[in-house]
From TrEMBL:
Protein name (database record): ABC transporter ATP-binding protein
UniProt domain ABC transporter: residue ranges: 2-228
Taxonomic lineage: Bacteria, Pseudomonadati, Pseudomonadota, Alphaproteobacteria, Rhodobacterales
Keyword Transport applies: yes
Stretch forming the signal peptide: none
Family: Belongs to the ABC transporter superfamily.
One Pfam family it belongs to: ABC_tran
Native source species: Paenirhodobacter populi
GO cellular component: ATP-binding cassette (ABC) transporter complex
């Protein structure tokens, strides 16, 4: 379970969250909301990449902001832009890095990385340069690196952004096939209509929380109303 306990988070003195409390345990959870509502910040807090000024986030009992080793074994995050995540020149180095962070010796990490690439259906990518891959392929490298570490939860921040339709459909299928529990942030309600739970964030607070069939129509209607009321 992801436990978000009364978190307080400010950025440059401005409040993003002020006492947010959530429990996430469904296999597929989606988070929707306007830009600036706190969606991506919430994912970073769940992954332990940001620490709240108040309250606490636990994933599977791990205090992710305090226990980096425990966080790496429990939760992985796929950023909106894979170029913000990839730091090594070759695919095998990129995938092996997280395994080394978990304590695997370098040779063992590379062996496990190669096995992860084989499971992903791309054993021939090992020595390819990451910058030569397409956006969707670089995203696949990032996901493979996460899967190699075998976390219990995987967080996706706008995974369909900047992808063409075939890549969107492939990404959607990959997420659906994962054995891990998933939290997905998206601006595209159609991509999460089959999820188990949808949370609509508005200015750092929960505007609605429940089944997609209830939350998504209300969210879309509110966004359409906002578009009509906002001058071009």
């Amino acid at each position: 379970m992801i436990e978000i306990e009364d978190i307080v988070f400010r950025r440059d003195g401005a409040p993003v969250f002020d006492g947010l409390r959530l429990r996430l345990d469904a296999p597929r959870v989606a988070i929707v909301g306007r830009n600036g509502s706190g969606k991506s910040t919430l994912l970073r807090l769940i992954a332990g990449l940001a620490e709240p000024q108040g309250g606490e986030v636990r994933v599977g009992g791990v205090k992710v902001a305090k226990d980096r080793a425990g966080a790496l074994a429990t939760v992985g995050i796929l950023f909106q832009n894979p170029d913000h995540q990839i730091i090594f020149p070759t695919v095998i180095e990129e995938i092996a890095f997280g395994l080394e962070q978990q304590g695997h010796p370098r040779d063992e990490a590379r062996r496990l990385a190669g096995a992860a690439l084989a499971r992903a259906g791309h054993p021939d990518w090992a020595e390819r340069l990451c910058h030569t891959l397409s956006q969707g392929q670089r995203q696949m490298v990032c996901l493979t690196a996460i899967l190699a570490m075998e976390p219990r939860w995987i967080l996706f921040d706008e995974p369909f952004n900047s992808l063409d339709i075939p890549s969107i459909l492939r990404t959607e299928a990959r997420i659906a096939a994962l054995s891990q529990k998933v939290v997905t942030v998206t601006h595209d309600p159609a991509r999460v209509r089959d999820y188990d739970r949808v949370i609509w964030l508005e200015q750092g607070a929960v505007a609605a929380d429940g089944a997609p069939g209830a939350v998504l129509p209300a969210y879309v209607a509110a966004m359409e109303r906002l578009a009509r009321e906002t001058p071009c």
